[in-house]
Amino acid sequence: MSKRSGGISQKSTSKYIKRKVLLLGDEAVGKTSLIRKFVMDKFDDKYIATIGTKVTKKELEIKNNGDIIYLTMMIWDVLGQKDYRSVQTASFKGADGVIFVCDFTRRDTVGSLEDYWLKSLGNNISQLQLIFVANKSDLTEDAQFSLDDLEKVASKYDSTCFSSSAKTGENVEDLFLTLGNRLIEEREDLGEGRMDVEDLEEELTLVLATDRIIDDFCSNFGNMELAMPIIRRQFSEAGVDIRNPTKKGLLKVIDLLAKVEQGYKKSTIVKENRMKRRFMVQKVKG
Question: Which of 8, 72, 181, 247 could form a disulfide with 18 if both were Cys (CB 3.0 to 4.6 A apart)?
Fold first, then answer.
């Protein structure tokens, strides 16, 4: 197998494929850093919470049984904080593969893969190509589990397991290319239906309210991939940390989102959306 990343040369006999890949795992396990290392060969150890999702494109040239296949990998960096279930579920739509990421220095991130992330995908697991990754292998002195522990999880899903380091680059390219080779294989069309996720009735918290506000804006916008950069800008302008949102901050975000919607929606709909989102915040106790 060989590959070439970057621009795609034009050949009439070439086969072009686009696949959607999710990176799932708890916050701060290094999902964003792995993507940056793979796509741009850069490492940044400054942790920045991903709001909703961030989509990065990587183009690969793969040789498969003598044929050259040009794969466009759309990599979705999904919000790792739990309780943002609506935003996470919306990100799953149309996925072809998943890279599950845990952190060698935090044993609980391994348990979360089965207890939260795999369960969140519902009944669609068998239709997806899966890769399991234990990141931050450069921090060996702080490791709380071994690769064997993750391999036990991966084996249940007939999947491959990697140790990796976004800092040193260990196995970063290999894990993405391994998934890429699996994704070019013929597979049943998953369709565009929203993946099943258990609908949990929970007492509304500020985090859950934030989750629903983001999901509502994306639904009204009509395209989650395009809506997320707008949401990130408004949260940044309002100074809201999604890990610890405040009522005052969320109300400011809601007003900023309403200003955005004024550019493409009727005033009555903008007003209705604003009132609906403010009501979500007001329902939170305390």
Answer: 72
